[in-house]
Amino acid sequence: MIAQVTSALTGHLAAGGLLLAAILSLFHRLPVGFLRFCTSASALLAAFAAMPSSSETRVRLAWAALSLVAAVWYVTMVARGESQKLLAVLAAATAVLVLVRNAGSGAVTPEWIAVLSSLSSALLLGAVAVTMVLGHWYLVDSSLSISPLRDGALFVSLAVAARWATVVAALVFGGWEILRIGRAADVIFSTNGLFFLFRSLMGLGAPLLLAGLIWQTVKIRSTQSATGLLYVLLILVLFGELISTFLRVATGHPL
């Protein structure tokens, strides 16, 4: 189970990071060093997710394909010194396809909820991580436009909203019964309920608050403050999604 959880979490982080880096690169002129960092990190994380574990072979092959695409984009930038739009589109498409393909692994919930959960989880992890890394580039490149960071902060807010909607849908379609919560006290006495409580506080409640603060700090061009808040948010989201992945593996529901 531990191998499945870590594989899914790192895979979602890799796919989400590659997806957001690709989207931002299509609409903004980003530093090549930033894109090289994002693509190399995604390639390594996806390769880790593809390592032999209790995951299905087709799941590992999908993560391996994602790692290969990220590595090709990275090598091309090293060779040419710039990012190619076509590779960015290929990376984004591959990330989405891999997330959709792997969404149903071990899930007993309706397929569309599993797919939405996979996409929203990856988008949340990727949006927070990539936007946080991007914030550091403003410390060394004061001429960098604020637009990419603003769009990154917008994606963070959208990802938080999407994650909330997905979890609510999962609860409505069978998740509530899995948690075995009939009254308030059951949150403490039900093991799944207790895990979901911590998952909700760190992965849903805190991000909802911090996303608004990050957006406001970016609007006033306080890039250092926004980056600090993104640090905190990344830690909380990682813990929240870790527990969420554990619950999905244990129960089959993307809670």
Describe this structure in words.
The chain is mostly helical. It has helices spanning 2-27, 32-49, 57-80, 85-102, 111-140, 147-179, 186-189, 191-219, 223-251. The model has no long low-confidence stretch (mean pLDDT 86).
Q: How is the secondary structure organized here?
A:
Layout: H1 2-27, H2 32-49, H3 57-80, H4 85-102, H5 111-140, H6 147-179, H7 186-189, H8 191-219, H9 223-251
Number of helices: 9
Q: What sort of overall outline do the alpha carbons produce when their principal axes are compared? A: globular
Helix content: over 70%
Strand content: under 5%
Low-pLDDT segments: none
Radius of gyration: 18 Å
* Total beta strands: 0
Describe the largest sheet: none
**N-end to C-end Cα span:** 17 Å
